[in-house]
Write a structure and sequence with these properties.
17% strand; Trna Endonuclease, Chain: A, domain 1; alpha+beta; 6-stranded mixed β-sheet; 38% helix; two-stranded antiparallel ribbon
């Protein structure tokens, strides 16, 4: 077997391995989709987790442009929320200019710089939760001259000020001990 044949054989084995892993993942994704009643994506799963932990009534369809649901209880009852789950916290948020949105509830994995993803993984974990006042965030972004839309750059200080878990830095939504316990189940492994 020459070098080209060995390379082809290695590529074939890698393809078979990846195909097998995808079959395993599809089985898991199907089980999760059966529970959350939506396709298994970070967006849908994040909305479901947030709804369960923070008592959010989600919109009946997942096609609303500005928000995903409304807080059903507590000090934010009736206010609209757009839930995001970013598997890595890279300092970016997809921001809308809609007046109908009150808050962004951002579930985030480990903090990481927004650089090339080559050679990295995006683990399905939740290390922090941030609650941004949508109008205040939009005003601050405009004052800085930041482009609004997909992948909008948000300052580290804004992320810190909006944190409600694991540290309660914002008092806009107080995380109760039982909610914190539920969130810890999704933390990345040490």
């Amino acid at each position: 077997m020459d070098a080209a044949e060995r390379t082809d054989a290695m590529q074939d084995q890698e393809l078979r391995t990846v195909a097998g892993l995808l079959h395993e993942r599809n089985v898991i994704d199907k089980k999760i989709a059966g529970i959350i009643e939506r396709p298994m994506t970070a967006g849908h799963l994040g909305e479901w987790i947030a709804a369960k932990i923070f008592d959010i009534d989600l919109e009946q369809t997942a096609t609303s442009k500005a928000f995903d649901g409304r807080f059903a209880s507590g000090s934010l009852q009736g206010l609209t929320v757009n839930v995001k789950w970013y598997l890595k916290r890279e300092g970016l948020i997809d921001v809308t200019e809609s007046d109908g949105l009150d808050y962004y509830l951002v579930l985030a994995g480990p903090a990481a710089p927004a650089i090339s993803s080559r050679g990295t993984v995006r683990p399905w974990c939740l290390n922090s939760v941030h609650l941004f006042d949508a109008r205040q965030l939009l005003r601050e972004l405009r004052e800085r001259g930041v482009r609004i839309g997909t992948g909008t750059s948000v300052l580290a200080a804004q992320w810190a000020a909006a944190e409600i878990y694991p540290q309660q830095r914002s008092s806009a939504l107080v995380v109760q001990p039982e909610q914190a316990a539920l969130l810890r189940q999704f933390a990345s492994a040490p």
